[in-house]
Amino acid sequence: MGVQAWTFVLVGLSFALYIGVAIWSRAGSTKEFYVAGGGVPPLANGMATAADWMSAASFISMAGIISFAGYDGSVYLMGWTGGYVLLALLLAPYLRKFGKFTIPDFVGDRYESNTARIVAVLCAIFVSFTYVAGQMAGVGIVLSRFLEVDQTTGVLIGMGIVFFYAVLGGMKGITYTQVAQYCVLIFAYLVPAIFLSILMSDNPIPMLGFGGSGADGVPLLQKLEGLHRELGFASYMDGSKATIDVFMITAALMAGTAGLPHVIVRFYTVPKVRDARKSVGWALVFIAILYLTAPAIAVFARTNLLQTVTDQPYAEMPEWFTKWESTGLLQWEDANGDGLIQYTGPASATANELEVNRDIMVLANPEIAALPDWVIGLVAAGALAAALSTAAGLLLVVSTAISHDLLKRALMPTITEKGELRAARIAAGVAVVIAGYFGINPPGYVAETVALAFGLAASSFFPVLLLGIFSKRMNRAGAITGMISGISFTAGYIVYFQFLHRELSTPEHWWFGISPQGIGAVGMVVNLVVAMLVSRLTAPPSRGVQAMVEEIRVPKGSGPAHEIEGV
Amino acid sequence: MNSERPQHSQSRPPAGGLTPAQRAAYWARNIRLLLTLLLVWAIASFGCGVLLRDWLDQWKLPGSGFPLGFWFAQQGSIITFVILVFVYAWRMNKLDREFGVREEED
Question: pTM of the predicted model, to two decimals?
Answer without folding.
Answer: 0.87
